[in-house]
Structure prediction request, 269 residues.
Amino acid sequence: MNLLVFDIETVPDLESARRLFDLQDLPEREVIAFLKEKKGEFLPPHWHRIVAIAVLYRGAGREGKEVLTLRALGQPDDPEKELIASFFKIIDRYTPVLVSWNGSGFDLPVLHYRALLYAIPAPRYWEVGDGDATFRSNHYLGRYHWRHIDLMDVLSGYQPRGWAPLDEVARMAGLPGKLGLSGEEVCLSWLEGEIEKIRNYCEIDVLNTYLLYLRFEKMRGRLRGERFEQAIRQLDRMLLEEGSRRSHLSIFRELWRRSDLSLQSHDGG
Prediction:
């Protein structure tokens, strides 16, 4: 099974705001303040612009062997359209199971609106069984299907009152949680041109989500004993190799190995 854990980082869509509200002469910070006053402190999905998409892919590689890779898509200066197109191309090529934290409530709606804006094709993602019968009872858009697992939604029992922030659940489980930034600081970092910092932050969110997913798979009996340990070792090796070039991954690995409650209490079951 191919797996794609993903997360996006966004800023307010200033271009649309200037176009719709005739704000051409206002500087960026004033447009942002205008939007928040008009739409609320946390803008609805269609008012967001994507500045980073990070993915962890586990599945078939070029030579048929299973691979595990983590990366922020594209390059720091790539336009939004290319980031979104790259994300959907992965789905078109590998048909992975998607894993997210609040992906149904935020990430995917934002991706939908932004893909619509640019008319980006994503036929595999939007398949619901008309072209492939295997999608009829299990497609990416079904809330109660397993082709996209929104961990926050599933763990809450699909009840809004049970929703919880990724950072809090991760740290309660002994995982590092967010490093370097908080969600509220992304926009400020973007205004200051710190896009690499945002991309690194996005990758850390994906790592926290993946580790919670592994625990969830063990909890529901799909990763037993050695299979769980293999998944943990595979991630550890990847972080060790990549950490020599990407310091935020080295920091994450050190914090994770020191405090993950599932490792401390692992009983081999």
Residues 160 and 195 are 32 Å apart (CA to CA). The two ends are 22 Å apart (CA to CA).
